[in-house]
# Entry
Amino acid sequence: MTRAVIATEFGGPEVLSVIDETVREPGPGEVLLAVRAAGTNPIDYKLFSGSHGADPSMLPFRPGLEAAGVVVAVGEGAEGPAGPLSVGDEVIAYRIDGAYADRVVVPARTVVPKPTTLSFEEAGGLLLAGSTAVHALVAVEVGSGDTVLINGASGGVGTIAVQVAVDLGARVIATAGHAGHDRLRRLGAEPVTYGEGLLDRVRALAPDGVDAALDLVGTDEALDTSLALVADRDRIATIAGFQRGLAEGIRVLGGAPGADPGEAIRDAARLQLVALAEAGKLEVPVARAYPLEEAAAALTELAAGHTHGKIVLVP
# Structure
């Protein structure tokens, strides 16, 4: 048996409930994962809210796209991107369905080794945000010697984007509220406070402009500043300002209509991120861990958008 979180109707976090159900054995090319931590992400509540479509055939909906845990059963021929999988392996699974559970059967192709440097809570929040960050940096071709502006750098995607960009040899100017500045400095970025006067503050740090920019928040301020500072619009990417991004001719990334999903880049990023973490070059701040039964409270906090770090569920 396992406990699993489901949404039986479309709506806010209040539609979530925890059920007990039997877990099947893994089939060929699958593994059974005992979940130690499941990452929460904005896409989770967007899917069961109905904002991405309210097709009744989606119900009951099982949220959760990423989890860290231990392999407890292996189907025939179960092999992940890093090789064959065995009972007892500590792993991360992404992209999966129904991660908000005690146990979940997942395709072996979604499973990569958990870095020994990360706790299960940290590892459970690594891959969705991390693969998004890598996709954005690849899309705007950030490399050694570049100056890159990262708008929304203290969030889950931004924190990882900063670290990956620094590892690539880029200079990072990072927008965030003042509370996030010390962490961003420690990660190698030069923080600036968003809000009125942002363009002038960034120009003071980079009077010759910047080479590339990421918009991770979708605000007009972030896009206006990026457009003013980056000469080549192909080197500006947004994961949130979809409509304006398409109108401005910048790179629009993610799952929205007209966006580049970057599936191959994101798949390849999983082992890259694991290697960076294993080398001690990547950390995943965890803002709070909730028990599985408090999934609604966790997603309510996540939707408020004021956390600095990942929110995870711990069965």
Q: What stands out?
A: Residues 185 and 191 are 7 Å apart (CA to CA). The mean pLDDT is 96. The chain has two domains: 2-126+284-314, 128-263.
